[in-house]
Amino acid sequence: MSSPTELRAYALHCLLENDPGVKVTAVAAMAEASRAGGCGLDPASVIVPAGAIPGRPDKPDLVPPLSVGRRSMATVEGRAMLIHALAHIEFNAVNLALDALWRFPGLPLEYYIDWLRVAAEEATHFAMLAAHLETLGYRYGDFPAHDSLWEMVGKTTEDVLARMALVPRTLEARGLDAIPPLRAKLAQAGDRDAAAILDIILRDEIGHVEIGNRWYNYLCQQRGLEPRATYAELAVRYKAPTPRGPFNIDARLKAGFTEEEVRAL
């Protein structure tokens, strides 16, 4: 089937794809089509999904977070389990970026270009982690995983403001704090390739959280809302997880959090 030529329709086309490798290739093709001017935005288009959202493979099995096993970093299996967990996060991040791109109409063109960039970079992250996982003798889907990130995406389908507040500004921002210690563990275990991949992911994730912050503040301004008070109300309403330290203050500031927000952590 030919790919759509309207940007939001193309994003939905990618979102519905079940096969991770095909999804990664499709997202790269969408980004290239957009750069080449062959995939534009039609504000009048009405886009209806024809399939389950998100598209994903039968494996990994999805289990509660506490049921996802852990092993020592001193073993290949232990490192593989960690890489697999990170790959699953990045696969979900591809889907959440695609969902943010197609689901919410009527926003400035720059919003869609920003989330296209996020989708393309998350797809690259997933591809790098999945390829590294194979060097360890495993494949994506070999271990169980949890679905916490996508669950918040599902809760915020009706309001782009809530989506920006609670997915990039909350759940993805946790990655800014989590990546440095995970990188240190992998480096200490001698997995320099995995550590280098996490360096790339942290660099890009700062930009992704900044995109979430920027559009959250834009939407607050458009609706005449005070950002900090609105965020507090949304966090309670949607039962968002409370941020826990230690925090990567430098990365959070680069990602657009204010000094006041960082101090409040």
Automatic annotation (TrEMBL):
SUPFAM superfamilies: Ferritin-like. This is DUF455 family protein. It comes from the Bacteria. Pfam families: DUF455. The lineage of its organism: Bacteria, Pseudomonadati, Pseudomonadota, Betaproteobacteria, Burkholderiales. CDD domains: Ferritin_like. InterPro entries: DUF455, Ferritin-like_SF, UCP012318.
